[in-house]
Amino acid sequence: MDIKTLHDADVIGITTAKTAFDTLATAFGQHVENWQHEVVDRLSHSEWTGATAGHANTRIQTLHSELQAAQQEIGLVSRALQDAYDSFAAAQAHLISALDDARTHKLTVAADGGITWDKDPNSPDFAGTDAENQATQIQNRITAALNEADHADQTISARLGHLATNASNGTGLDSATAKADADAANALQQIPAAGTDPNSVKAWWNGLTDAQQQRMILNHPDQVGNLDGIPAAARDQANRINLKNLIQDRQRQLAGLGPEPRKMLSVAETNGGPVANPAYTEWKRKRDALQEKLAGFQSIQNRFDGKLDGGAGGPSSDPPLLLLGIGDQGQGRAIVSWGDPDKARNVSSLVPGLNSTLAGAGGGDTMTAKRIYDSAVKSAVDNQETPSVASVFWLGYDAPQLDGTSVLTKGRAVEGGAAYNDFLAGLRATHEGTPAHVTAQGHSYGSLVVGQATQHPGGLAADDIVLVGSPGVGVDKASQLGVGADHVYVGRADNDPVANAPSPGMLGGLGAAIYETFAHPDASWHGTDPASQSFGGQRFSVADGTMTDSHDNYFGKRGKGGDSLPNIGKIVSGHGNTITREDPR
User: Fold this and answer.
1) Does residue 25 contact residue 74 with C-beta atoms inside 8 Å?
2) Which of 20, 91, 312, 399 has its CA 20 to 30 A from that of 331?
3) CA 144 to CA 464: how far, in whole Å?
4) Cα dihedral angle (263, 266, 267, 272), rounded to 10 degrees?
5) Contact between residue 394 and residue 424 where contact means Cβ atoms under 8 Å apart
């Protein structure tokens, strides 16, 4: 596909062909209906019997089935032509828009796509000081439009070629073949269910034309954006649409609550002393829940609008920030990534723990992932490599809060671990080129989520695992995490109250505590202490901090944490062998 061919393409002619096939399909359908009434029905009600009648009726029924199959096949041609029009029209519009912008910026586009411009500041045709940047952007858009058309050409050509072959050799008269062809066409319009194998999802997505993919994003952003196996760029586009929808939905629901009811019922209403109004209590419960979600979603929107931390994550952010997941299930879901994990050579994915919220995903937790990104980039540079990093913050589960006992049990980690396992499998499926070096990271209760994720069939799609501030990961040995004990890295501050939390057995009274101390000296709340020698992981150096700050400083918050963040950067960049080590306890 070249610029002139796409620019001059008569896409309206495709709709003319589609209309003709629609007319043919309608007429053919009428013939099939007439055949049913005038031949099949008449013979079935006749009194013609005998062997000849039996053979005739069998052949007539077969012929009727063939006619119905042919009608289906004709209809599929019409559907393919509609998809062809949608795809080529979109690609042509994208090309024309890029060429128009080139003229606006005084850039000249050659037939082969090369772009030149007048560089003389004194010339009336001077393209400006930003010409090179504009030329690069426009050239990328032209290339994308041509690729879009090429993809559509190949996909539609294959579909029409298949149907033409069926028509010429008679295969299309077989009802099973027609059904299979119809099922294949319908599958292009049906989004795979959540939990579908990510490789199957990716194959489905690749089978869509660019125009079909775009329609899926626009019409079903909540499903496309959160489906593992969809490429990161498409998920980002869909989730940004869905984020705005979620904000608007919460605003409408808040408005729909109506005015605030009275807080108290009067003495007359209760025949006693004034009491709390149940209507107000219920109204406030709904309002508070909606406002909390709204604040969280708005925080994430502010991040992408560049309103936080000096514009970090905004439209011109470097690296770009992608929204890989957003939803209102439970406490809310949010997955953000600094850099594109489909293209990066090194990918980190951090699971947060206790007290993590939607608001944090838009605020400080996003910057935690950014510090990991920066540290991994520095490590690559220190090792004389070109940095290629993506750093994900994954809040794909209901993190325990301090208002309950969920942090003491592993229920949320089991559920979150299943979702995290699917997410990393999705990143494996959509990554371009050589598989990325993936580091799964868990902080606090998030380390238990990572531990549970590793226990699924096939293991976790990660090469290294980092556990910091961990109360245990649900297994007794690093070797049970599936990546090899030498690829399990553990950071633990001596003054971390979470990592130092006693095991449940220690809470059973003095006698039980004494027994636990001697019988299970390396026990933590959720299994063996990952920082212990018996666990068998690779312990790296961190700052001990204080009881009040050590648990939050593993990722260099407020410049604290000592060697922790640099060590994590080395692991993420694939240089875990260079960490500053610390002896296990």
Assistant:
1) yes
2) 312
3) 35
4) -40
5) no
**Annotation: CATH topology of 3-187:** Ferritin (1.20.1260)
Please provide the average confidence, as pLDDT, over all residues in the chain: 88
Report d(CA 296, CA 243) in Å as an integer: 11
The torsion angles phi and psi of 467, rounded to 5 degrees, stand at -125, 120
Residue type, 397: Y
Query: Using an 8 Å Cβ cutoff, are 397 and 416 in contact?
Result: yes
β-strands 321-327, 275-276 pairing: unpaired
pLDDT, tens digit, 9 for 90 and up, residues 514-561: 434 443 445 567 889 999 999 999 999 999 888 888 888 999 987 888
Are 537 and 480 in contact by the 8 Å Cβ rule? The answer is no
CA distance 503 to 208: 52
Question: CA geometry: angle at 120 spanning 117 and 124, to 5°?
Answer: 80
Specify the residue for token string 């294949």. Answer: 184
- The DSSP bridge partners found for residue 528 are 523
Q: What is the C-alpha to C-alpha distance for residues 283 and 261, in angstroms, rounded to an integer?
A: 7
- Residues 111-167 pLDDT 10s: 988 999 999 999 999 999 888 888 888 988 898 888 878 878 887 888 888 888 888
Output the six-digit token pair for 141. Answer: 């858009």
Please state which architecture CATH assigns to domain 317-578: 3-Layer(aba) Sandwich (3.40)
Collapsing DSSP states into helix, strand and coil, what is residue 390? Answer: strand
CB 388 within 8 A of CB 369: no
Q: Is the full-model pTM beyond 0.85?
A: no
Here the tokens at position 162 are: 């298949």
CB 343 within 8 A of CB 361: no
* Domain edges within the chain: 3-187, 317-578
- What is the enclosing helix (H) or strand (E) of 108? strand 107-109
Contact call for residues 294 and 285 (beta carbons, < 8 A): no
Q: Which residue has the higher pLDDT, 224 or 174?
A: 224
Q: Between vectors from CA 418 to CA 292 and to CA 412, what angle results, nearest 5°?
A: 45
485 phi and psi, to 5 degrees? -60, -30
User: What pLDDT does 506 receive?
Assistant: 41
First to last CA, the chain: 64
Instruction: Give which of 257, 243, 345, 340 is closest to 294, Cα–Cα.
Output: 243
**β-strands 264-265, 275-276 pairing:** antiparallel
Task: Examine the pLDDT at 435 and tell me if it is beyond 70.
Answer: yes
Stretch (H or E) spanning 290:
helix 278-304
d(CA 376, CA 569): 4
Angle, alpha carbons 236-238-244 (nearest 5°): 100
